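It is worth pausing here to work through a concrete case rather than discussing structure prediction in the abstract. The textbook approach is simple: state the sequence, then state the predicted structure, then interpret. We follow exactly that order.
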Amino acid sequence: MSVSPISPNPLGVGFLGAGPVTQAIHLPALAGLGHLFSVRAVMDADGGTARSVAARAGARPSTSVQDVLQDESIDVIAVCSPHPFHAEQVIEACLAGKKVVLCEKPFATTVEDATRIAEVCATTGVPVLVGAMHTHDPGWLAFTQAWGETAGSAQHIRCSAVLPPNPRFEDFATEVSHRPPAPTGPTAAADRIRDGVLGLAIHDLPLIRAFLAEPGQIVVHEARSLTPFGYSIIFSSAGQVVELHALMSENWDPHWSFQVFAPTRAATVTFMPSYVQAGPADVVIDEAGRRTQLKAAPHNGYLGEWQHLYDVAHGGAPRYGTAELVADLAFALDVAEQACGAAATTNRAA
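Step two, the predicted structure:
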C-alpha cells in the first residue's frame, strides 16, 4: 500500500447516514487521516442527528441525499444509511461522478441490486468499496500472502465472535447522538438468524468464501439462534466444513477469531472487536511443529479501508473488484436463507 504522508488537497468526504457506525467508527478513523481526507457534509434523515454529528467533524449538516451528492467539494461518498437504502444511494453516488464510493456492508440486499451496482460502476468508472473491515485488515492481508492459495486449501473453517453488545464499544469510542432504539417485540428465530448473518457473520463470510473450492454449492446442516443475540451455524461445501458461532451478551472478555485447519497446517487470525480502533489482527500459523506469528502494519481494518480508498481515488486498482463483491453478497444471502430454513426446521422438530 502506498499512501502519501502529506496531501495538499485532502479528499472531501460526504456521509449519507449519521448513525453509530459513522459516529464511532468512521469519524474517529478519519480524525487520524486529516492529511488525506476532510469531512465536508454529514447527511441524516434526522436533522438533529445531522447537526450534532456534523459539528464534531467541522462539516455542514444536511437532510438531503441530493444536496450532498451535488456538492462539488465532495469527492468521496460514504453510504452508512440503513441497509435497504444502500443500493440506490451507491448507484446515485456513482452517477453523480464521485471519485470513490464507500458503502457499509451489505452493499445491497439482493443479488439483482448488487448486479445493478456493478453495471453502473462499469458504465461510470466509479469504483465502490465495501466497508467490511476484516477484508482490509493488515493482519488478514499478511495472512493470505503467507498462506498462499486459499481456495480448497482447508478442510475445516471456524469463525467465532463472543462480544458485548455494540453500544458498549460505541460509548468507548464516542458519545453517540440519537442512537436508534433497539428493536422490541417477539422475533422469529429465523429472522434473528438472518439478522445475525447479514449483520455480524458478513464480516467473515468473504474470508470463508476465499477458502471454499465450491462456494456456490453450500449446504447448511444446522442453524440455531442463541440468546440474547447470536447464532450457531454449520454448513459444508465439497467436503469442506464451516462453523459459524457468535454470541453477544454482557461479557467483558471479547474474542473474535477466524481459524482454518488444513492437513499439514493450521492458522488462527484474531481480530479486534467491532468499533475498537486498536491495531491489526494477530496471526499465528502452525505447521510441522513450527509456529509463525506474523507482524503486520500497525493500523486496523478501518484505517486500512480508508487508506486503500485514498489510493483508489488516485488511480489505484481496488483490492476487490465489483464482480467479487457481488459474489460475496450472493454467498452471504445463500448462507442466510439456508440458515433460516434450517433454523425453522430445528424449531419445528423441537
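Step three, interpretation. The CA atoms of residues 84 and 254 lie 29 Å apart. The chain has two domains: 11-134, 137-299+327-349.
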